Amino acid sequence: MSENKDPHVGHVTQSVEGVKFVYDFTEGNKDLKDLLGGKGANLAEMTNLGLPVPPGFTITTEACQVYLDSGEEPAALRDEVSAHLVALEERMGKKLGQADNPLLVSVRSGAKFSMPGMMDTVLNIGLSDKSVKGLADQAGDDRFAWDSYRRLIQMFGKTVLGVDGDLFEEALEAAKAAKKVTVDTDLEAADLKKLVTKYKKIVKAEAGRDFPQDPREQMDLAIKAVFDSWNGDRAKLYRRQERIPGDLGTAVNVCSMVFGNLGPDSGTGVAFTRDPASGHQGVYGDYLQNAQGEDVVAGIRNTVPLAELESIDKKSYDQLMRIMETLENHYKDLCDIEFTIERGQLWMLQTRVGKRTAGAAFRIATQLVDQGLIDEAEALQRVTGAQLAQLMFPRFDEDAKVEKVGRGIAASPGAAVGKAVFDSYTAVKWSRSGEKVILVRRETNPDDLDGMIAAEGILTSRGGKTSHAAVVARGMGKTCVCGAEELEVDTKRRRMTVPGGHVVEEGDLISIDGSTGKVYLGEVPVVPSPVVEYFEGRMHAGAHDADELVEAVHRIMAFADRKRRLRVRANADNAEDALRARRFGAQGIGLCRTEHMFLGDRRELVERLILADTEAEREESLKELLPLQKQDFVELFSAMDGLPVTIRLLDPPLHEFLPDITELSVRVALAESRQEPHENELRLLQAVHRLHEQNPMLGLRGVRLGLVIPGLFTMQVRAIAEAAAERKNAKGDPRAEIMIPLVGTVQELEIVREEADQVVAEVEAATGTELKLAIGTMIELPRAALTAGQIAEAAEFFSFGTNDLTQTVWGFSRDDVEASFFTAYLERGIFGVSPFETIDKDGVGSLVKLAADAGRATRPDLKLGVCGEHGGDPESVHFFHEVGLDYVSCSPFRIPVARLEAGRAASQSAGSDHR
């Protein structure tokens, strides 16, 4: 063990085997958050800036990690704390808890990431039956001393000894009632002294021990309690919600006490250097006279606006304004500040980069650029795709009176109001009559697509964030709440029963919030999003605040577009979605799902094709489908003229195009019982039985379907080639790319490619038009990823289908697992987030990187993209940038988010390279 006392700063440095567990506030800085936690690092930074910070020291997160791993504090910790405590006592001219001139300290948590209110704090440590008298003499105020003592017993009893906090509150209320007062500041010293006696009895009865009178025991137990609070239920829940790693641990800050409860010339407050709600500059915060910090947080008494401090204590107010300006210029960001005034002396207790609303984040970032405090690259790091998404979706008026009747999974953001309808047909019919509807189902399937398109929003009682309803709704920008299990949906009787027995009949108005998962009765007023109007080119100038927000978003998006390397394409299946995507900034279509073109009116043609007994029947079906399919592509190429359009050949499993086997069996049985003609139904049922699969998602689909049903893929390729030729001859610039789905071996791709090349050559000869149609494949099976080097010999591009790749890597059926066990996995920390939301970097991500590297090793000019749901997920976009993909593709409404995150990813990597 070594000791080094620095006479200039009065602190002691001790280490054991090179590990140092305690740092004086003079030793750290804001860049040591991993070690000192956010609070400790920022206290050190303010100390170094010469701001008035009460002296103290920080116990590191490493000490907490040792404690959490072993159940015991590091052997050297007590000696290090003792050395720093002695140095603190020398500096303050007092000793911890001594009878005549006591030093009191606070013990506060402070993790790397802000977790407000989630972990524990104890103030006024060092007070005892003896030292309370010394504190009273020191302050010349008996009431203050006994008030501080009762606060210590209350906080210590609840936080350290596990006593029910309500017992202390009840005793306090009884004391106020006996005195016939309503606020605790009206209690006098004698009242508070009696309250201390009562509090100690509560501790003895509930904790089975006396309140400790030894000040060092108080401090050591409080430090241990803060360590323990890292794994408290509320802290773990918060970390899961905010996706904060559970192994970081918390630092502990031991700080000499300053007192805001010393009378009317004392107080405590919270200040922001800008309004965290709007981003506007000004004086924002709250102040409470004659109070300690916990009073402000707990809302025990009403605070006054920070601006009123100017008339209460002009000197402290002016000093605080200067410090706030210093901190904002130093941190180059909105700062959240806690301060105390002790008899006219201002003390800074904490600063951190403040949390803010999404709108404020964009405004503040551009304001700081204009002030020259940050550059464009840094501005991109001050906002997130999640914040942009919040700004894009309509929202309910928070001030409206509402009747909440249920809650499900927030599957697709937005606020939707409409009449409840219980089938797709009614949704379409009512929508065409001008009615706004909410499609309510137990769960949706491809047959509901028309109704989903017609509806304002979708509500299901089953399913999760990646259920059919959720995935399709996000793709369309539709509000969706899934898995609202407390709602009983009866589609046959066209009604929904909500908790309490109230019945929602078809036609009744309901409102659903896809950002929170809440379901309401009646119509909740909706506030539109000016940001979406801006992206769609139809921004109507309204309130000045909206104009200012749109301008900030516009500038940030311009920064991102200049910085990003990844291109952003859209998942779009028709001209309408393609045009919307283009307005949102799409640089092409990365996934056109042709199966969506075959539903609805064309379903019968596909059914006939699949069930055809003869080649002539099959050819007839293909002949009827060809011109319809060609027109689809003509419209798509026109909408995306000059930009690449990647068309995936038919992919879904057969059952999506065939009648439901149960319904068909019932129809046949009924016809037989009534002795009615049913030859066609019987023939169809026999065919459906023949083609029935136990696990259709892993059965006859994708490239397998194209190989088994002759002419199916060549019909689609011909339609693409003829549409491209027609568009090119009309002076357009079609850039078609043909994508073969579900390839597992290069031989499959080679066979389909050979047939496709032959068809394209025939169309070129017939039209006299040279066509350059790239042919590639989806990488959505582990085998495809593992043999990507071979597959690249026959593919000009790869598009990673990360939805199916996640399913096949994990062995999950995404339509089932979220509802069955994902909640338990998330609660137990097995998942930090669903692997269908954010890409699993270690598993699925490893296969993506392996396939990308192997593919480019074979074909250096291989184009790489991603078209799964992850293409619009902020964290996943960063991963795709890192592994070197060329583009991401996502639903039209997620394009701005992907553009922003692609810019942020490029800016981050450039900053890392520079460092």
Textual characterization of the structure:
- The two termini are 36 Å apart.
- The strands form 8 sheets. The chain has an 8-stranded mixed β-sheet with strand order 16-26-25-18-19-20-21-17. An 8-stranded parallel β-barrel has the order 28-29-30-31-32-33-34-35, surrounded by 6 helices.
- With 915 residues, it is of the alpha/beta class.
- Helix 13 (358-370) packs across helix 20.
- The radius of gyration is 33 Å and the shape is elongated.
- Helix 21 (575-583) links the parallel strand 28 and strand 29 (589-593).
- It contains 35 helices and 35 strands.
- Mg(2+) binds at residues 780, 804.
- Its EC number is 2.7.9.1.
Largest sheet: 8 strands, mixed
* Structure class: alpha/beta
Number of strand elements: 35
Total helical elements: 35
Terminus-to-terminus distance: 36 Å
Q: What proportion of the residues is helical, as a percent range?
A: 40-55%
| Mean pLDDT metric | 88
Per DSSP, what share of the residues sits in E-state strands of 2 or more residues? Answer: 15-25%
Rg, nearest Å: 33 Å
Low-confidence stretches: 1-16, 540-544
In the sheet with the most strands, the strands line up as 16-26-25-18-19-20-21-17
Shape: elongated
